Each structure stands twice: as C-alpha cells, then as structure tokens.
Amino acid sequence: MVSKSWGVALGRAVAAAALTIAPIVARAADEAPSPPINPYTGKTEIALEGKSLFNQYCSHCHGPNAVQGERPRDLRRLNIRYRENATATFYTTISTGRMDKGMPVWKGVLNDEVIWKIYTFLESVQSEP
Questions:
Q1: pLDDT score of 66
Q2: What whole-number distance in Å separates Cα of residue 117 and Cα of residue 123?
Q3: 53-88 pLDDT tens trace
Q4: Contact indicator for 114, 53 with CB cutoff of 8 Å
Q5: Phi and psi angles of residue 52, each rounded to the nearest 5 degrees, phi first
C-alpha cells in the first residue's frame, strides 16, 4: 500500500514533469515540417512536360504514360490509395525510395522541379475513386 504523502509527492512530480514536457511537445508540433505542396498543380503545359519526364524516368516500372496493370505500381491510383496524403506519400517515396519494393531513391538524381513536374502529370491522370 502506498502512503498518502508518497502518493501526493508522486502526483506533484508527474504534474511538474508534464509542465516541463508540454512546451517541448508544443514546440515540436510547431516545428513539424509542412506537407509538400506542388507548385505546378493545375498547369496543363507543365503536365505535358511532366508526362515526357515520367516516360523518361519512371515508365520502365510504372508503364508508359503511367498505364500499369499491377495495382501497387499503378500511379493513376495515388488519390484512391492515399487520399489527402497522396502528395506527401509521392514526395516521400520518390525522395527516400522503397528499396524493399524496388523503388530507388530519386532525390539527388532528380531535382525538385523535375519531381513536381512528374507529379503534375500524375495529378492529371488520376482515376476517380
């Protein structure tokens, strides 16, 4: 059995720890990176350029013009699979790769301008949910 004074002391220690940690947690939330934003969304002329870049860099695995029958590699289904996280998932995957699934790391090989042009093309070919 725990004595009452020990329980009170423990309660105060927990409260003090919470007060110490709360600003750190709040600061971490404020410093969390914003989701990536495609600067070219909706720009048809960029989508056409992105299509060409896609076919140059991505079609060997994801099919010409993003037409791929294998669901895991069918990038026309990004919005269906990832919904509001599609942009962040795309950017993270292309930047860090998925080596276990055969997806190489493209960050450093392709600059952000090329990456976003490719994504602009992919936005233009998304299947309806």
A1: 93
A2: 10
A3: 999 999 999 999 999 877 778 899 999 999 999 999
A4: yes
A5: -65, -45
Rounded to whole angstroms, how far apart are CA atoms 96 and 49?
A: 23
Q: State CA 95 to chain mean position distance.
A: 9
Residue with tokens 């093309």: 121
109-128 pLDDT per residue, tens: 999 999 999 999 999 999 87
Q: What is the 3-state secondary structure (H, E, C) of the chain?
A: CCCHHHHHHHHHHHHHHHHHHHHHHHHHHHHCCCCCCCCCCCCHHHHHHHHHHHHHHCHHHHCHHHCCCCHHHCHHHHHHHHHHHHHHHHHHHHHHCEHHHCECCCECCECHHHHHHHHHHHHHCCCCC
Q: Which residues contact 49 (CB under 8 A, 6 or more apart)?
A: 117, 121
Residues 121/40, Cβ–Cβ less than 8 Å: no
Mind listing the pLDDT tens digit for each residue in 3-49?
A: 666 656 555 655 555 556 555 555 555 555 676 889 998 899 999 99
- Which tokens belong to 81? 């699979």
